[in-house]
Design brief:
Layout: H1 3-27, H2 33-57, H3 62-93, H4 101-104, H5 107-128, H6 135-164, H7 168-195
Length: 196
Amino acid sequence: MGLLTILLTGFALAMDAFAVSVTKGMTLRKATSFISFKIAFFFGLFQGLMPFIGWFVGIRFQSYIKAVDHWIALFLLSFIGLKMIFEAYEDNQNPEVTVTCDDELDNTELIILSIATSIDALAVGISFAFLNVHIIPLCLSIGIITFILCFLGVMIGKLLGPVFKNYSQIVGGIILILIGINILNEHTNFIYRMLN
């Protein structure tokens, strides 16, 4: 696998995580450099780790993972998206309640988002098991590319946040749900093309 292919694979796999990072940057009241680093680290770690897990599991569980990966991603992203919309509604009902930075960046939520956006990387890792690739450098490349894009994504989201003001959490929740629907749609279209 050539360098260009590795880079393109890394960018392709990082797109969902990048979009979610932009969303988090929009919705956080204080998107500091440390928070940007933390979000990028989580996404980069999971995005780099999942292909290795997929490669390790290999062909044994390929059919099981490919059958449900898109549904898992849709469920997790929709759950977080709906939670964000509901919290935005509650904040509008109780404007006197202030949220601290630590409360806004919940580690559990960050892990769920990291898993949801890296499930496709798990499936790609399974396909790597059938290729003659050096998996460790490949996974490191994917993780680093994801880290860089997500760090930038949070910064971009921070700039966009004031544009949407009070609606940023609602917009962010809707974006997460749409990303989940898009993952499901891509999987459905792929199956349709395979059958025809």
